[in-house]
Amino acid sequence: MGLELYLDLLSQPCRAVYIFARKNRIPFELRTVDLLKGQNHSDDFVQVNPLRKVPALKDGDFTLAESVAILLYLARKYEAPDHWYPQDLQARARVDEYLSWQHTALQVSCTRAMWQKTMLPVFLGQRVPPETLAATLATLDRCLQLLEDVFLKGQDFLAGPRISVADLVAITELMHPVSAGCDIFKSRPKLAAWRQRVEAAVGEDLFREAHAVIMKAKDLPPADTAVKEKLKPLAQLFL
Ligand SMILES: N[C@@H](CCC(=O)N[C@@H](CS)C(=O)NCC(=O)O)C(=O)O
């Protein structure tokens, strides 16, 4: 069996992996893991990723979790064009710097914003205290400011003059709050111009396709009781 990618495009790190693989014409079998059905807890999936999270990769007997590790594995194995993850020591270190920062900063606030605006109230019927949402959006705003002031300072992309995996990881995160109705680009022309550049570099059709599921998340019908029970432990993490 060749390369298998276990994804649910509702998930932002899955979208980064999906776009990277498709954009670089990496052949893979898509194994959809439906998070809302709890398929990440199935016996079969746990064999692939005992951490029970997507994305996950299987390449023959080799399995791998964590989107950043997966992106770098794919970039190296398939010798993706240099700009995605440059060979140059310091250019690569800039990409690594962003990837290290985002996990505890942008990923956290984008995930919380989407859950607090969409998944909890709309899908699971759970009230989110306004002050909780306000605190999340304030943290998100501070992250957006850092994107503009630190990472995008004087350059077109987050880690240099050309698109890299850092930009893919960032844009797929940012589309999470966008899908929930947060107009995060409105008063941020610098970030909005960067988004246009990233979309153009990825290709608008692929970008739209990868985000189709998340952009419809706010129209999901309310979950039934069994799904609510299943997602309860996860949902509590975002309150
Ligand atoms: N740091 C991980 C995050 C993976 C992650 O949290 N995946 C979520 C979807 S975005 C998941 O699978 N959640 C299911 C669960 O926790 O039950 C990465 O970047 O791959």
From TrEMBL:
Keyword Hydrolase listed: no
Protein family membership: Belongs to the GST superfamily. Theta family.
Entry's EC annotation: 2.5.1.18
Residue ranges of domain GST C-terminal in the record: 88-222
Gene3D superfamilies: 1.20.1050.10, Glutaredoxin
Protein name: glutathione transferase
Reactions catalysed according to its record: RX + glutathione = an S-substituted glutathione + a halide anion + H(+)
Main localization (coarse): cytoplasm
Intracellular or extracellular location(s): Cytoplasm
CDD domains: GST_C_Theta (cd03183), GST_N_Theta (cd03050)
Record keywords, A-Z: Cytoplasm
Pfam families attached to this UniProt entry: GST_C, GST_N
Domain GST N-terminal: residue ranges: 1-82
InterPro entries hit by this protein: Glutathione-S-Trfase_C-like, Glutathione-S-Trfase_C_sf, Glutathione_S-Trfase, Glutathione_S-Trfase_N, GST_C, GST_C_Theta, GST_N_Theta, GST_Theta
Keyword hit for Cytoplasm: yes
